[in-house]
Amino acid sequence: MRKTIIALAAAASLLTLGATTAAQAAVTAKPTARPNATPACGPQCIDIFSRVLGHHTILNAYVPGDHGVGGKVGQKLNLKFASNSHPNEDFTLAADGTVSQFCGSELSSTSVACLHYGGNPVLELNWTPYGNETDLCAGTSGTIFSGENVTLQPCGVYEGTLFIVDSDNTQGGFSPLIDGASASFSHPEVVTVDPGTAHPTNQIKVETENTLTGGVIPDTQLFTGFPGPAA
Asked: Which CATH number describes the domain made up of 4-228?
């Protein structure tokens, strides 16, 4: 899959459509200096965090040793305390445009994503320890189900490694991220953090998007990001 690093800018939601590019990253204003992605990964890294846990815990590949090596398909992802010495927290954000531009290639033209989210931005999160792309991305494989773990998967192979920004449900600068393999438009599967897990803590899964309480999405299903590392 051809990739272009998305431009990063302060905005209300994680992704918005750009005026001169098909898809352009938009992240919340960067907080004050704090540890996050490794300096080797540089500003191309993106630190994804949830509304429920805040920016001090970011997306991490749960790989033993946290040395940036040994990653393999099926290893779990979680949110971990941010540190610029943790290469497993290094991810790059890449995209080629909106959902419709993937239809017929990476996404089936008859998929829920193509039929209902054609104009929404789509993103892929590549595990990039110390700035080295691995071709392992955050996602799911095959037919997804509520409660399935988000794990390292081959980039560009499964629809589940593409995450669609649910801009209709953006709240306070945070947006749900719909799994590209979701089979339901009315009840899509979205990225969800479970703060009650152990081994790893704060494990990432996909769960049915929760809009039962007056249309308000729970904080465990709302995400945004900022470029790293801190100066």
From this structure: 2.80.10.50
In a 13 Å sphere around the CA of 108, the CA atoms on its Cβ side amount to 9
Task: Give the separation between CA 188 and CA 182, rounded to whole angstroms.
Answer: 6
pLDDT, one tens digit per residue, over 168-215 is 999 999 999 999 999 999 999 999 999 999 999 999 999 999 987 777
Tokens of 77: 């992802």
- Label residue 119 exposed, middle or buried (CB < 10 Å: 0-12, 13-18, 19+): exposed
Strands 223-228 and 91-95: unpaired
Enumerate the domain spans of the chain.
4-228
What b/e sequence results for 50-67 when a residue is b if at least 16 CB atoms lie within 10 Å of its CB, and e otherwise? Answer: bbbbebebbbbbbbeebe
The enclosing H or E element of 113 equals: helix 112-116
Q: Give the mean pLDDT of 97-119.
A: 89
**Tokens standing for 56?**
């001090």
